[in-house]
Amino acid sequence: MRRSLSQRLDWAALGRLRLAAQRVADGAWVGTHESRRRGAGLEFAGHRSYVPGDDLRWLDQRALLRHERLLIKQFETETERPLRLVVDATASMGFRSENAPSTKLDFAALMAAALTRVAVRSGDPVGLDFLGGGEAAEPLPVAGGLEAFERAVVQLSLVEAAGHLGESGADLEQALSSIGRRSRRGSLIIVLSDLLEFGEAGPRQLAMLGTTGRQVIVAQILDPVEVLFPLEGPVRLKASEGTLEVETNASLARAGYLEALGALQQRFREALRAHGGELVICRTDEDPVHAVRAVLRAAEGRRA
Amino acid sequence: MSFLVAAALAVALLVAAPLVAHLLRRGRTPERVFPPAALVTRVEAHSKERARLEDRTLLALRSLMVVVLAVLGATPLVRCSRLSVDRPQGASIALALVIDDSHSMRARVNGEPRWNSALEGARQLLRSVRDGDAVAIVLSGKPARLALSPTTDLKAARAALAELQQSDRSSDLENAIALGRSAIENLERSQRKLIVLGDLAGSAIDAPDISAPLDGLRQPVNDCALLEARRQNDRLRVTVACSGAATGARSLKVVSSVPVENLLADPGQLARLALEPHLGSQVLSFALSDPNADFELELSPADANPSNDRVHVSPAASELNVAVVTDATAAGVVTGGPTVIEQGLLAVRPDAIIRPLAMLPDETRELQGYAALVLNDPSGLGPENRSALADWLDGGGVALGLLGPASSGLQLSSTLEPFAERNARWESTELALDADPLSLSWLGPESRSLEALTRGGRMRLEGAGLPGSVVVGAWKDGAPLLLRRPVGAGLVLTCGLPASVEQSDLALRPVFLALLDQLLGEAEQRRGSGSTWVGERWSFPAARSVSIQGPAGPVRLALESCEAEAESSTACVPGEQSATPELAGQYVVTSDGVAQTRTARIDEREITDPPGSVRPATQQSGAGDDAGSVDASPELALALLAAFAAELSLRLGGEARRRRRAERALH
């Protein structure tokens, strides 16, 4: 039997998350956010080549006669840009090493709340989706205003790290397809995940979200131990989910691990960039303001 | 071993527990959650690395703690084998430690010199002494002396003990025990203990108040010693002494840079020599090819006491010449032969050369060859005699004047100088007068039989002493019997009895031999043969520039202050310089620029006397037990505490190191 929201909610945690998100958002705020789309409007914004399917009403007949080329007139207009946040809440996101300030999920929730705050302040609607996270991980439809921020904060404070994406990648594909279907054209999709369970098809599947005018920014959130692998001597490593156990000598395996991690990130980076997206690496022991700024810069086209 | 001890010690079996725990820990690789485990490659741990016991220091410490805990549980039933002072009444005690510093303590027993063992025993005893206890330390090397007056300052006692040095003296245990006993007898303590730490050579202790722990010191040792290598004209007389436990033939070899052919007339004699040891001394004689050569002899193979296996042959060694001036009829014996004086001199010093003189020489040069002079019942000394005698005495001669009836009838130009004033007079009496043994105690135990010394009378010496004379012996009525007077570098002893057995019983008493022995000792110190026992004091006149170079470097000279001996009847000359050779060997004495070689030799009894015995009842008297009566709990508890602290600091240190390493890696 599901408990009521008030029973499930940790009000103290909610308050902390709200305040922290506001602080991070204030720190990351870089001025009025301007969502620009080219299309029908009042102010001429230039030409582009015609492609089949373009509305013939915008065909520049004078240019056709003068240059014998099919050019479409573009007009600039201010419009809202929906933000869809996808938070990975699988079990591996619950990892926190001895010296780390928080779990990866907590860090991702803070970043998501801060980004929501930034978007709401810019007048953009925000939607929230989860990968894994159990029954508490309920998606939020795209909505605008402070109410959307409050709902997102509540939802982020409720979610717990649980479940996994499955070894085959089918679950991931299904989840991402659902997100893609629900995301409007021109949406900004920010995925907050450690990318450790996305499998071989993960980069391609994530990059596919970036079609039809959408932009995908992936923030890979890692624990410092995962970034540096500072372990020493013989050790038996257990994955967060499944039965995978690796017995190794950490000192000897360090170089190989860092190389493998770098290769994984490179695969995601290349796949995302091919579709206009970007990969941002975040550590849970860094200042979340910096992490949010890096994501925003990546969304504005400046690579982190 | 009782059940409790066994049970407590059985706890020590748990020493295996830390080992098992470490082995288990070694076998189990530490686990941790690591989400990107799939990115980590498997690396098989090296077999040696897996086999290595982690934290071996911690393992050793933990095992040690278990063992110490077990032993602590077994205490006080388990005890240390060390000396301690037993105090059944629990009150403060007065303790006199008599430590033997004689030559025999140099012998090694089980590889350790007896002296070191005795010192360690004394240290252990001092550790068990508490505040309020009084401690005195007496050294039993001859003469016995007080190294530390009774004190409650235990720090001072330990410091005094640390400063003690081994010597080559003879043993004087009997007097040392008497000294120790007298040192603590007046202290206000309920219990007085006298503990002897030595080999007790030639002695047997059966007094109930004396304890003699450290049985190991009294084990017989295989020892042969080269006591002396004395040159006599063109021959070399070597004295070798061996203990009763000495075994194995010895050989002698010359230690010199000069070829042995240039030193000995028959070098083959030395090479053929195979000395079979037997208890006592034996004298070997060799012909010298170079009477003035300076070399050493060495006995081999080395034995329990290697320090006495080498002796220096010095060209300066010479005989002890003693002149005796007496009327043979007065000092003779009815059986004929030498006079009682000559017999006495030969008895105390067989190697001395005794020369009876018909009359006292008139010239100094005639006396120069003599180290000592005994003048019996002189009928006065003429001016020439006195002048010659004064010069000889000033140069270091020692004279004994035995005054009798003939000395009272002086001719006009004659006096008794340098022995007494003219007013000395003979007192005829039929009474058998006794001398005071206490006043003559400095002559040793022989001074006890002094009853009925007189037969025909005695010399009255009251007021007859010359300036500088000191009464060193007296009659029971207080009249002086023996006077001592230094003259320049020499010494004059004046006795109020003659050697004639018709006039006095003195010559027949042991004290007479002690007096002659003292005379010859003084002569040897001043100008005699230059050969004395180790520990015998050498005296030098005041205001003379004297320096002594010994086997171990310069010898410190002491200046007589006489304060400590104010109540003693023995002679003390204020300002007189003295030195005591502590080691056997050759000494170069330079007095006013004139160098003289003296030899300090080891007493034969230090080698030949077997270790003493202790009556069992005395050994168990509890004055100093070494039979494991010490509770080791405090030491064990401290060790356990230290082990705990070390274990804790190791763990904390290791944890801090791991944390620092992790932080470094993360940044």
Structural class, from secondary structure content of chain A? alpha/beta
User: Structural class, from secondary structure content of chain B?
Assistant: alpha/beta
The CATH superfamily title of the largest domain in chain A: von Willebrand factor, type A domain
Gross morphology of chain B is elongated
Query: Which regions of chain B are unreliable across 5 or more consecutive residues at pLDDT < 50?
Result: 564-570, 620-628
For the record, give the distance between the C-alpha atoms at the N and C termini of chain B, rounded to a whole number.
62 Å
Which H/E pattern describes the elements of chain A?
A: HHEEHEEHEEHHEHEHEEHEH
Mean pLDDT of chain A: 82
Q: Please indicate the percent range of residues of chain A in DSSP E strands (runs of 2 or more).
A: 15-25%
Specify Rg of chain A, calculated over alpha carbons.
21 Å
Classify the beta-strand content of chain B into a percent band.
15-25%
CATH class of the largest domain in chain A: Alpha Beta
CATH class of the largest domain in chain B: Alpha Beta
Task: Report mean pLDDT of chain B, rounded to a whole number.
Answer: 81
The overall strand count of chain B is: 35
Count of structural domains of chain B: 5
Task: Indicate the topology.
The complex is a heterodimer of chains A (304) and B (667).
Chain A: H1 5-8, H2 11-28, E1 36-39, E2 43-49, H3 61-67, E3 71-78, E4 83-89, H4 104-122, E5 126-132, E6 140-143, H5 146-158, H6 170-182, E7 188-193, H7 202-208, E8 215-222, H8 224-228, E9 234-238, E10 245-249, H9 250-273, E11 278-283, H10 288-299
Parallel strand pairs in A: 4-5, 4-7, 7-8, 8-11
Antiparallel strand pairs in A: 1-3, 2-3, 5-6, 9-10
Helix pairs in contact in A: 2-4, 2-5, 2-10, 4-5, 4-10, 6-7, 7-9
Chain B: H1 3-10, H2 16-27, E1 31-33, H3 47-51, H4 56-74, E2 79-80, E3 93-99, E4 108-109, E5 112-113, H5 114-127, E6 134-139, E7 145-151, H6 154-163, H7 173-184, E8 191-197, E9 204-205, E10 210-211, E11 224-232, E12 235-242, E13 251-255, H8 267-272, E14 280-287, E15 295-300, E16 310-313, E17 321-325, H9 328-331, H10 340-348, E18 353-357, H11 364-367, E19 372-376, H12 383-394, E20 398-402, E21 425-428, E22 457-460, E23 470-474, E24 480-487, E25 490-495, H13 510-526, E26 531-533, E27 538-540, E28 546-550, E29 553-554, E30 558-559, E31 577-579, E32 585-591, E33 594-601, H14 605-608, E34 613-614, H15 616-619, E35 630-631, H16 633-666
Parallel strand pairs in B: 3-6, 3-8, 8-10, 9-34, 17-18, 17-19, 19-20, 20-25, 26-33
Antiparallel strand pairs in B: 2-35, 4-5, 6-7, 11-12, 12-14, 13-15, 15-16, 21-22, 23-24, 24-25, 27-31, 28-29, 28-32, 30-31, 32-33
